[in-house]
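ok so for the tutorial part 2 we go from a plain amino acid sequence to predicted structure tokens. step 1 is just haveing the sequence, like this:
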Amino acid sequence: MKRELIIGKYTLESLTNGMYASPLDMYREYVQNAVDSLDEAFANGIELPDKLSIDITIDAENRVITIRDNGVGVPAETASETLLDIGNSQKSRMTSRGFRGIGRLAGLSYCDKLTFRTSVKGEEVASVIEFDAKYLKELLFPGSNDGVSVADVIEKIVTVRTKKETANRRYFEVRLDGAWSEAGLIDPETVETYLIQHAPLHFSEKFKWGRTAVEKMRLAGYTIPQYRISLNGKDLYKPYEDSFISDRVKRNEDLIRDVKVEAFYRKEKLSAVLWYAETNFFGTIIDNTIKGLRIRQGNILIGDKGSCSSLFKEERFNGWMIGELHVLDPEIIVNSRRDGFEKNSAYFELLSNLRDWAFEVSKEIRHLSYERSLSGAKKVVVEAEQIDDIADENDLYSEDLSYAEDYSESAALDQAESEELAETDFISKLGQLLNQKKAQTKYTALNINSRLTGEQRKVLERVFDLIMQEYDRESAESFVNTISSKF
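step 2 — the prediction. this is what the tokens look like for a chain of 487 residues:
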């Protein structure tokens, strides 16, 4: 028996406030849709890039938010199906940032009324679609109208109408009436902090290295898409500047010395391009709006400042970095929450390449820390791969052993982060070398065998001593080498 599939009303709750980590993510979703419309306007020759814009206004007193773009708009004949169908977007994920057809509902849980108003050039009408978000909350209240489907709910809360419009106007406008005051949704300062990190903005004139980053990225094969976005009449820019404060203890002022670019490939195709700042790497960057490598797709932030931390064996190193990883591979697909990517082979291949890069950068950070913080003798210890690399006459062990035993976490906390890194690496390496020295024997065949533990070496050393006592030297050495080769 065939049965009609019913999609329950609570699906709407999952697709609105259940979809996003923060109410502020609503801004990202609407900016994302607006940017796709701007791209289409430029691609179709409707408008020049410097004339395209997204204007956001917040009327905190009346709790009204408006997000408006001058992209292509939506024709009246398709407005209803385009704006009311759920999960049925006609956008291509190859060319558009939003392609699942659910982002337009992002504001539904955070206001009393959500309105879409749009018109295209040449039409003398504007389409107006209103969602009664306040009534929606009543319908979604547990125990009330539980048998109602999503289609039933949409029919109850949506009003579709048209109004007269000037024929040469084109736009798409999102308006939230009765917007939430919670989570800073109508606080301009909070929203600005969010947008300057998430939105696909231009670099500020205060960031002279921005032009270098854009040009080097272009030469590497990617032109960063940048857009004019304003908030209450103020143009917004990415927060990067040429200097910044780092290190929680010393709070050093650091300067960007250069911008480096790394390109990552999959099957000879460009997969991602990264720009990052070459600095003195004094320690953790204090400003959270620029701290950490940021992952971006279409120049819109994916995840947050900590999304690249797992690339580094010591996750704190990501907090010492400034930069952006722009993901280009169409096979690397952002997830619905836009806090990461779907797990597939293309994603894992990029992840592996990024970890290799992060390993090399970590070595650079350590080298700079050693140069600033360690004495020449200590540098010898940290950089040594084998105990034989250190001459016995340096006598570094007797000099530093007591220091190593007394060094504590509380002592480290009193140091600048770069100094702490150098000292803790020194103590770690010194401990390894001390253990290595304790495990040395008089027999080279044992010392060079990395498969043996220190205890095994000592046992075999006693066995070899007995062999040397009982046999002539030539026979004894033959026995020793034969036994050593079996381990």
